Amino acid sequence: MKRMTGAEIRQSFLDFFASKNHVIVPSASLVPVGDPTLLLTNAGMNQFKNIFLGLEGPRHLRVADAQKCMRVSGHLNDLEMVGPSPYHQTFFEMMGNWSFGDYYKKEAIAWAWELVTEVWETEKTRLWATIFEDDAGDLPADEEALGHWLGQTDIPPDHVLRSGRKDNFWSMGTTGPCGPCSEIHYDRGLEFCERQGEPGHVCRVNGDCQRFLEIWNLVFIQYNRDADGVLKELPAKHIDTGLGLERTSLISQGVVSNYDTDLFLPILKRIQEMLGDSDDSAKAKWVPYRVIADHGRAVTFLVGDGVIPGNEGRNYVLRMILRRAARFGRKIGFAEPFLGEVAKAVIDTMGNHYQDLKRRREFILNVIRQEEERFQRTLDVGLVLLDEIMADLKEKGETVIAGSDAFRLYDTYGFPIDLTRDVGAEHGFTVDEKGFQVALDEQRARGRAAQQFVTADADELAVYVDLLEDLRRSGRLGPDGVEHPYDDFIEMESVVLGIVRDRKLTKRVKEGDDVEIVLAATPFYVESGGQVSDMGVLARYDEGKEQPRWEIEVLDVREPVPGLIVHVGRVTQGRPGVEEPVWAIVDATRRMDIARNHTATHLLHSELRYILGEHVQQAGSLVAPERLRFDFTHGAMLTQDELDEVEQSVNDAILANYPLEVEHTKYQRAVSAGAMALFGEKYGEEVRVIKIGIPGEPFSRELCGGTHVRQTGEIGLFRIVSEASVGAGVRRIEAVTGRAAQQLVQKRLGVLDAAATHLGTQPEEVERAVLRLMGELHDRQKEIAGLRRELAGLEYEKLLQEVQDVAGVRVLAARVQVADAELLREMTDWLRSRLGSVVIVLGAVIDEKPSFVAAVTPDLVDRGLKAGTLIQQVARVVGGGGGGRPTLAQAGGRDANRLDEALALVPKAVSSLLADPGA
Ligand SMILES: [Zn+2]
Ligand SMILES: [Zn+2]
Predict the structure, then answer these.
(1) Cα–Cα dist 817/828, whole Å
(2) How far is the CA of 599 from the centre of ligand 2 (A)?
(3) What is the mean pLDDT of the chain?
(4) Residue 640: enclosing H or E segment and its boundaries?
(5) Of the bound ligands, which one is closest to the alpha carbon of residue 187?
(6) How far away, in angstroms, is 192 Cα from ligand 1 center?
């Protein structure tokens, strides 16, 4: 194969299939859209799944692309292959060409051969092909493919091999589309066999050495497997091929590992520069280097597709991979966060083809930095806990860290098991790895149970899938499904095509029934792009009558399978039936509230970018009738000035009464004209762009399927209600418009008017009046505090009168009124300083409990009077106890009613202590 860079291979693949009349489509997001069964896009065919399942018609019959993919199985061991293995990666690119019921085996084989041998100039003698021959003996061998290999190409005939189900039969799942494959393998030569000389080893295709590598898999989707496992020939057969970009680059560049290709070298080089490693020491650390390079690519692309680190699903996958990379980095000498630099290298290497990476660069770097810093803190917490665990064990004379403890560290604190192992070993501990594994398996079992629940969902879809198929077969619905002119109408006449009640089709329903209704056409918007579904009514009217014959209140609208729109609601009147005419009427007021919020969301987005900077990207949104919520990327809290400015500019744009323009265009053209595409949206080729501004010079352009006002003036008023953080580098603004904004303003002004009335002033004067009142209040409080002090002084003076003489010692025992023990002590101090040589016992009821403080001056302590001893005797009366230093002691008790009795005891206790200091 001639020498090419990875980028050249990618481009020549796409150019070649474009020359064969294929439409080149952009890679789908790593976040699968509309497929709850899939965590991350893991194969080129994911975005075409509905076409294979027959749920959606193809937009084009021939398609080719380069698809970003990620494979991270939950099993730690697979992830641990990344690094040591020359081929394992979490993130990779899959090139593919597709035919949807168009060309088939003949062209797929001939073109693959042409590209590999003529365009890429691969020596034919190095190429091998396989065709399917059933090792189970149930299915016929793929003689058709064999015939094309021998007839359409000049591959050496003995280089076409037969292979069984494991390598050459592909299925989407236990049921559904499946078919035989044909693979192309490349012979790298004997020097790449690492098992030469091993007895019994023979180098061969699909063998067990590194000499032969599979580069391209051509899948012929020929059958549909039903629930009984029976294969039926498909009426329309498809082609689905996959060629790994990294693998092909490796062969073209004549290197041993994917990591030696130009797809990875610049990233590895950047790591080496940052560490200042010599070539030799970099080589010695090759496993961590590769882990960081692979994970760095994965993390960059995941964040680029809008995934943010978290504790569930794909957010967790991102966190796990990022932390794994950070940990390997620490092992080889990175003391500070470094993954942002790795991400920069990834963006430099891949950003020319994947332009989103460049556009979201700041966001990507920001999210990565924050998560890396957070991980550092997690590590610190985990290390402290591990120290505690080890200290406990040491005390008990044990040396094995329990599996459950290791799992708790791993599961709750994200503290990796190998770190527990390493740190433990440093201190002479081992980890109960079996126990850890048991805990991990239990968690996985729980995870699987949750997954089965997801697949159970697929059965629940059966009623809709069957209904849609029936309606299409009978011609009641076209290939696009239910007609959906939601942007042109808010009410229209149609016909009831299907009624579902309790997940079963039915012909007629009655008042009070919860139903799902399918119409031939509907103006109801279906929740998407953050905008909630419409509500309204479905009703049948008889000519000349005002009251409907029947009516259904629509509370939600869903699209359970593409093309089938379902109105969810309740029959409020009459007996609706299928085939009846119906008026579908959207709640227009609610729709208008939603439209105001939606257009305002676009204005907000554009003003945020203008005021805060181009790094602001939409990270999520909710457009409901009563409010809007907009999540966006920004590193810091917005200041009040920034919020005021944003609110003001949105309102300026409203007052300017700009027109909105809806344009239908091609995706690529829209994006290159500057339209903002959103994270994780799945766009068809033909897209809708909403433009706001002076015609020809719009300041806001967004890809958007939602409903909008016609002129910004219709929004009326825009008010920000709150601003907050919702995660690493992501802020959230909530706002109201139109009627809700008016209500808000009215309510606030009402409060202001009421306050003015109470203050006996005008609304404009309220602030001044409040400030004046606050000033007065402050003065009053100062005055009160002064008076209190005076009162206390008087009380103290009164207390001084109560000093008694007990055997020549001055004793003060008194009850006082204070709010807390602190004051009681202060009072004691003050009295002591005034009285000179003295014994003081003060008692008070604090929180309904008796409380005492005793103080004895040092000269009396020398004579055997200890405050602690004294107070114990006193507190005993109220059922309590206490203690303290010889000069100062405190006590409490239970029975507040006996406080005076306890204080009356003091003189006696003093005299007996003086007589017998040992008591
Ligand atoms: Zn070999
Ligand atoms: Zn929108």
Answers:
(1) 13
(2) 7
(3) 89
(4) helix 640-655
(5) 1
(6) 8
